[in-house]
Amino acid sequence: MATDTYGRRIDYLRISLTDRCNLRCVYCMPAKGVVWKPHDEILTLEEIERFAAIAVEEGISKIRLTGGEPLVRKGIIGHVRRLKSFTGLEAIALTTNGTLLARYAEQLVDAGLTRVNVSLDSLDPEVFARITRCGRIEDALAGIDAAFAAGMGPVKLNAVVVRSLEQDLLGFARLTLDRPVHVRFIEYMPVGGTAEGECEPGAEGWTRADHVTADEILERLAAEGAAAGLGALTPVQRDKAPGGWGPARYYRFGDAPGTVGVITPLSHHFCGECNRLRLTADGRLRACLFSDEEIDVRSVLRGGTDEDVRATIRSALESKPESHSMRVGTTRGMSQIGG
Ligand code: SAM
Ligand code: SF4
Fold first, then answer.
1. Ligand 2 contact, 23 CB (< 6 A)
2. What pTM did the predictor assign?
3. With contact defined as beta carbons under 8 Å apart, do 334 and 28 qualify?
4. Does an H or E element contain 277, and which?
5. Ligand 2: distance of its center to the CA of 157 in Å?
6. Cα separation, 287 vs 279, whole angstroms
7. Digitized pLDDT (tens) for each residue of the chain, 339 residues in all
8. Domain 12-337 falls in which CATH fold?
9. I want to staple 90 with a disulfide (CB 3.0 to 4.6 A). Which of 61, 110, 172, 208 is the partner?
10. CA-based nearest residue to 241, from 227, 258, 224, 229
11. From ligand 1's centre to the CA of 338, what distance in Å?
12. Residue 181 CA to its chain's centroid (Å)
């Protein structure tokens, strides 16, 4: 079992398969675009698998594939199948924008991946296109349908709440009435934007005015839901919550099959329960989303022994900070870190 300096059990590894993406979400990628890393700086799938196998030996039991957009990475199905064969790995999950999921859902299930989080910030086609700068909502919705049709579960939708986007939260809540979909509202986080020449201080585009707390989200949902006849919004007990590896708190309207949840990285930070490490697509091990301290795993994977790789995991555990201390901005953006 892996524990860090503060006694937290670390059993969850998020792997960014690529820094590339087929969308350009306004809060994730800078308006001026992203310079993709050259191919030789991106870990090969074999390198990721070698690292993951050692991480599993060190106590990691859950892996989430993310990005960038993980479904644009060639070879992802075989990669899932190989990861899935590791003894000691309980589960593997995917975070995706969903636009390519209709193409891959069945193959993913066949390879052993059923847990999927689809990021979807608006149900309005025009707002969706504005947020993603180029996306078509039909593709994301088809991806969600395909996930259900292929037997994936739990299927969760992640919506980042940004005040100026004026999202229809109740519209999302209504989705939970028809099928077991779990909509999680995520507080907008100040990630990115402190690189040289960027706005200072803080993350590009992020403002305190745009940050909506989970308490406000829940108040709005409860009031709008009651007014629309959805019934009372009641908390779901932790042991009945849709299987999660993170700190979401879940609620349900009446006896709806789905739930709504909130993730509160800022307003009620959950650093004390943090269970994760992140591997970036270019092979940096990151112990905290908000800390720019990274360990160079790529050169170790390319020139070192398995013991050297193991040592990088141990030093990440040693360097994992106790809390993010309300830090605003990071050198790299979310698509590069692997959100
Ligand atoms: N492309 C995939 C997707 O969109 O799900 C995976 C990578 S994306 C970086 C992972 C998650 O990070 C998405 O749910 C996205 O909404 C979220 N995200 C990106 N920037 C964020 C920010 N500044 N605050 C909160 N969440 C953010
Ligand atoms: Fe791409 Fe996901 Fe970032 Fe949107 S949030 S730009 S889909 S990586």
1. yes
2. 0.93
3. yes
4. strand 276-279
5. 14
6. 9
7. 789 888 889 999 999 999 999 998 888 887 667 788 899 999 999 999 999 999 999 999 999 999 999 999 999 999 999 999 998 899 999 999 999 999 999 999 999 999 999 999 999 999 999 999 889 999 999 999 999 999 999 999 999 999 988 899 999 999 999 999 999 999 888 777 655 434 333 455 677 788 899 999 999 999 999 999 999 999 998 888 887 777 789 999 999 999 999 998 777 777 888 888 999 999 999 988 878 889 999 999 999 999 999 999 999 998 888 887 666 667 777 777 777
8. TIM Barrel (3.20.20)
9. 61
10. 258
11. 8
12. 17
Which ligand 1 atom sits closest to the C-alpha of 265?
25
Atom of ligand 2 nearest to the CA of 96: 2
Output DSSP code: residue 211. Answer: B
- Residues near 85 by beta carbon (within 8 Å), at least 6 away in sequence: none
Evaluated on CA atoms 288, 293, 298, 299, the torsion sign reads negative
Residue by residue, DSSP assigns 309-332 as HHHHHHHHHHH--S--TT----SS
Ligand 1 and 96: CB distance under 6 A: yes
Kindly state if the Cβ of 101 falls inside 6 Å of ligand 2.
no
Alpha carbon of 231 to ligand 2 centroid (Å): 34
Contact (CB, 8 A) for 96 and 70: yes
